[in-house]
Write a structure and sequence with these properties.
Structural class: alpha+beta
Length: about 625
């Protein structure tokens, strides 16, 4: 085997610290296991020395031993369960190595002495046993000694087990308080003989029992870790320790190869852990319930205790976290609620409202504060509602419709859907409409008196848009329409009186005048229009002499009168109006001229000559 030294890493996971004993063929080291972080004893052998028989005896007799194999060397790791157990298992391991290791290898022989019992402190450090010096012996002597040792080993394996029973473990064990390093095997204590090799079937049964015990232990450890992560010692320390005590009892049975008894002890402990695991949700629910009841009764101490217990069971429980926060402010919330109740009983609802709000700021889940705030807020709103309704009706009675409407609408914000507000707003709207109708009627009557019939008609139509059943507006609209039409037609005739010279127009004007003269009452404007029309119609029938001049070669035609022919000059009697005269002459461009005859005024000559040649 290769040389070994402190701080060397072997088998990919063990760091050698120091030799536990030196001078042996198979050295033992104190080492650190990188997987578990714990210190162990590590016996290092040639690879071929780890025989199947040795492994079988190890699994059967030493529960804390684990074998490791590599192509060149092998190892046996021994866990330090406790100092006495380690010393006892170490001594037995030495004996098994000497008995079952393959010594046919070409290994340099050394004088063998039993392992010193080790007394590890919590740091697992003891002074190494001083190695003994090897005697310098010649090769022939070594060969002779080797042969003798084989014969002795043969006798020990096959005959001595039937004659001598191995001493019980207690003979080599020492308590942590009294353990001292044991002396090498001397005449004071005979070296125990190796156990007899087991038959294959018996070995298989023992291994099966061991594996069953280990399976239960594995489940126990898994549940143990789960419960430790859930802080089990905070809520069931006694029960948890009792379960671990069962495991320690199982370890005791396991160490002396009583695997069935070990399995039963491990199972008893596992059953207790499973019971604790099932109990956790029940305890959590009870703690949460107790905490809520304490909050409801303002018992901050009990609430704090209950929610703290719940968080010990479930550190991430949101209900417990929130409950603990509420418990911290519970006393202050209780004082504010008491203040709010007193203020409410005195009718000081604004003060009560503020106190309830402060309580909710400390504890938003305080149901009494929520209910109280709703109650006093509703009372304040009711009082404010009454005030606004009174203000609204007062304004309505005074004809202050805008102020009344504003008050009623603010009242509606306090009580949406209130029938009282709806009725008040309806009354306000009705009053507004009546006021508007009255205003429109007054304006319409004023425009009628001014004989401004289009504006009067507009006001009557607006009044009917507010209330289609208004009788005065219907009559006024009809009257205004007739007078507006009469005014329009009279204005058109007076704007163009020359049209009256036409018989059809004159006849229509006469018919219109027959209507106008019967209208009563007749205002100044209509009276003036009738007078102007009578005058325009009287002069429209009186002819005016109009002189026409030409060149005696142009053919003259006067529309509405007829052909005048060619002439040098000619006078014709025409009624007032607008006329068109046309002159034509062969080889010359036609001429056209429009002129107006005004009643009572002389008309200048109308010259009609075609003088532009084509």
């Amino acid at each position: 085997m290769r040389d070994l030294r402190p701080d060397q890493i072997v088998f990919g996971r063990y760091t050698l610290l120091r030799p536990l004993r030196s001078g042996a063929r198979h050295p033992a080291w104190l080492a650190t296991d990188s997987r578990s972080g714990k210190q162990i004893g590590l016996w290092i052998l040639p690879a071929a020395a780890l025989t199947p028989d040795l492994e079988a005896q190890l699994h059967q007799g030493i529960a804390a031993a684990e074998t490791i194999g590599e192509p060149e060397m092998a190892g046996i790791a021994l866990a330090q369960l406790n100092p006495a157990q380690f010393s006892r298992d170490g001594a037995q391991l030495e004996r098994l190595i000497e008995q079952f290791a393959d010594d046919s290898l070409d290994i340099e022989a050394e004088e063998f002495e039993s392992i010193e019992p080790l007394n590890f402190s919590s740091a697992a450090t003891t002074a190494p046993v001083e190695s003994e010096h090897r005697s310098t012996v010649s090769k022939p002597v070594i060969i002779t000694l080797f042969a003798v040792s084989i014969i002795i080993a043969f006798g020990v394996i096959f005959y001595l087990p039937d004659l001598v029973k191995p001493p019980p473990p207690e003979q080599t064990a020492a308590t942590p308080e009294t353990s001292q390093p044991a002396a090498p095997a001397t005449a004071a204590r005979s070296e125990p003989e190796a156990p007899k090799e087991l038959a294959p079937w018996q070995r298989a049964q023992i291994l099966k029992q061991k594996e069953a015990a280990e399976a239960v232990l594995e489940e126990f450890i898994r549940k143990q870790f789960d419960l430790e992560e859930s802080n089990v010692t905070a809520w069931a320390e006694t029960e948890f320790n009792a379960a671990k005590e069962h495991a320690r009892t199982g370890d005791g049975h396991f160490s002396i190869r009583e695997y069935e008894a070990a399995q039963q002890s491990y199972q008893a402990g596992l059953d207790q852990l499973l019971a604790l695991e099932a109990l956790a949700p029940v305890l959590l629910s009870a703690a949460l319930t107790r905490g809520q009841e304490a909050l409801d009764s303002f018992d901050s101490a009990t609430a704090t205790e209950a929610f703290t217990a719940a968080l010990a069971l479930d550190p991430d429980n949101a209900t417990a976290t929130a409950g603990l926060r509420r418990a911290e402010t519970l006393d202050a919330v209780e004082r504010l609620l008491a203040e709010a109740r007193r203020a409410e009983s005195r009718g000081e609802f604004a003060v009560a409202r503020d106190a309830f709000r402060e309580a909710l700021a400390l504890d938003a889940a305080a149901s009494e504060a929520t209910e109280g705030l709703d109650r006093v807020t509703a009372r304040l709103a009711s009082d404010q509602f009454s005030v606004l309704m009174s203000q609204g009706y007062a304004a309505l009675s005074a004809g202050q419709l805008q102020q009344a409407d504003s008050a009623f609408k603010r009242a509606r914000q306090l009580k949406p859907g209130s029938p009282e507000v709806a009725e008040a707003l309806a009354q306000t709207d009705m009053q507004r409409r009546l006021t508007r109708i009255a205003s429109l009627r007054s304006e319409a009557e004023r425009f009628e008196s001014e004989e401004n019939w289009p504006q009067a008609l507009d006001r009557y139509e607006k009044a009917l848009a507010l209330d289609a059943n208004l009788a005065f507006a219907k009559r006024g609209r009809s009257r205004s329409q007739e007078r507006a039409e009469l005014d329009k037609r009279l204005t058109e005739y007076l704007a163009a009186p020359a049209r009256l010279s036409t018989d059809a127009v004159y006849a229509a004007a006469e018919q219109l005048m027959s209507v106008a003269t019967t209208v009563e009452p007749r205002g100044p404007k209509l009276t003036a229009q009738i007078q102007q029309m009578q005058q325009a119609m009287s002069v429209a029938r009186v002819p005016v002499t109009v002189r026409f001049e030409s060149d005696n070669q142009t053919e003259v035609t006067l529309f509405r009168i007829g052909q005048l022919g060619s002439f040098d000059a000619r006078d014709i009697e025409l009624r007032p109006g607008t006329y068109t005269v046309v002159g034509t002459r062969s080889g010359f461009r036609d001429v056209r001229q429009q002129f107006t005859v005004v009643a009572g005024q002389p008309a200048g000559p109308v010259i009609v000559r075609c003088e532009e040649k084509i």
